Amino acid sequence: MAFKTLLLVCLMPCGLSSAAVKADEGPFQATGFKVGEVTDTSAIVWTRLTLRSKRNPADGPKVSIEYRHRLPSGKADRVVSAVRFADGATVRDLRQAVPGVDGDVRVLVRQDHDHPWRETSWQAVDPLHDFTRQFSLDALEPNTAYQLRVEARSIRGTRGQPLEGSFRTAPRADDAVRVMFTVSTGQGNDDQDRPDGFKIYPAMLRLDPNFFVHTGDIVYYDQLAKTVSLARYHWQRTYSWPTNVQFHRRVASYFIKDDHDTWRNDCWPTMPARDMHEFTFRQGQAIFREQVPMGRSTFRSRRWGRDLQIWLVEGRDFRSPNHAPDGPHKTIWGAAQKAWFKRSVAASDATFRILISPTPMVGPDRANKRDNHANVAFQHEGNELRRFLAAEKNMVVICGDRHWQYLSVDPITGLREYSCGPASDVHAGGWKPDDFRADYHRYLKVRGGFLSATVDRQNGTPRLTIRFHDVDGKVGFEDTLRADTP
Question: Among 57, 91, 362, 427, which one is most buried in terms of CB atoms within 10 A?
Fold first, then answer.
């Protein structure tokens, strides 16, 4: 088995100096680890070393943002004048912060207790990247459950907190086996629904999924992330919730970014900075790759056996301004990604093919929105992609971003789209339950929860079953498609 360490290019300084940290014990892994980008023979393991075993208390210092107003070009503008910390605190002192610390980590992996551990070399975490480190694991066996152990040691060589977990590799492309995965979106840190985090995570764990997809809005930068350090603070507090830590120790994941975990609401690369202060779009792109296991590209496809292939797309890095005139050159995906998508879909022989998108393709969406393919703002590219997708056998869309659950069928092309809904009920909204659109909706519920998708075979016929779960895991609706084969 080969192991590689993934190195990240430094684009910005970190707000915490490693020289200022002196830990009497540890180091710890209070933000857990994540296993991602799993294939039939490989995976990436992400971890981060922390100064303490738990996040800071919830009643600690807060940060506030002060604005000044000016009128450039005759228009009102909102500009940050200062970032204020209570009682002389810094980011590392904030409530729910999880300060990082220097040290080394290594990863050990084995199939089961009858196999010896195989280990990486010790690698230092990177203080310029929030004390994180990523490892690439290669030469794994397909469709195999692996035990995982992530070990830590201090810069003095004393052992710190180890964490154990597990994950499963994907089956070979020609293996017809049952695969089940779950999908979520909209994870607001202040909208958690249990004292230790989110109900959806233990609910999903009870289903024992092969993998999990987060479709974006993993954190919400908009109000407080005015510096790089404050952006990282959002990831620290979200992934130190015990429910989140426990889930990602047991389930491999794929992460997609959207607007709120890239930079700001409805953003694009050339969007004016406005009230984001020192924090830039480019820094947001880099921090996303720093905080989740990620390979070469943020758009990619993964095969899970004979009957399933998924596509995970990038909706922020290549998009035109939302307010630009619509037409053949206006895009969300960009020409290169769109060409790759069409080419790879055409080349796939998987029975079921699923586009997992950070934003809707079918909708319907609110009339005042202009951020996705379901809106008139991107209607030209939306029509192009809906026609392409609908012409492919056994292909559907799962989307995030919207804060309600729905199954919609496009009245023009017949394309099916499943919206997973937000991570908690308190985060649900943006649509009224009575606004059921009979021309689109087959199911509509304004609530939190998640989706599960299962591919299996009944009497030799492949089928795809997508279920809408509430935050406790209860199924509210399910839709089963049987393969349309030649």
Answer: 362
- The predicted-structure confidence for 356-378, as pLDDT tens digits, reads as follows 999 999 999 999 999 999 999 99
d(Cα 440, Cα 364) in Å, to the nearest integer?
A: 7
Contact 289, 12 (CB under 8 A): no
Sequence-ordered list of residues with C-beta below 8 angstroms from that of 51, at least 6 positions apart, any chain: 21, 23, 26, 27, 28, 98, 99, 100, 101
Give me the helices (H) in 258-307, please.
Answer: 281-291
The owner of tokens 């490989």 is 42
**379-391 helix and 335-347 helix, angle to the nearest 10 degrees:** 10
What residue ranges do the domains of the chain occupy? 3-13+27-52+100-168, 179-216+298-482
Check whether domain 3-13+27-52+100-168 has CATH 3.20.20.240, yes or no: no
Q: What is the pLDDT of residue 76?
A: 46
Q: Helical H runs in 330-486?
A: 335-347, 379-391
Query: What is the model's pTM?
Result: 0.94
Are 169 and 41 spatial neighbours (Cβ–Cβ below 8 Å)? yes
Rounded CA-CA distance 225/232 in Å is: 8
CATH of segment(s) 179-216+298-482? 3.60.21.70
- Work out whether the CA dihedral 165, 169, 170, 171 comes out positive or negative: negative
**pLDDT at res. 79:** 83
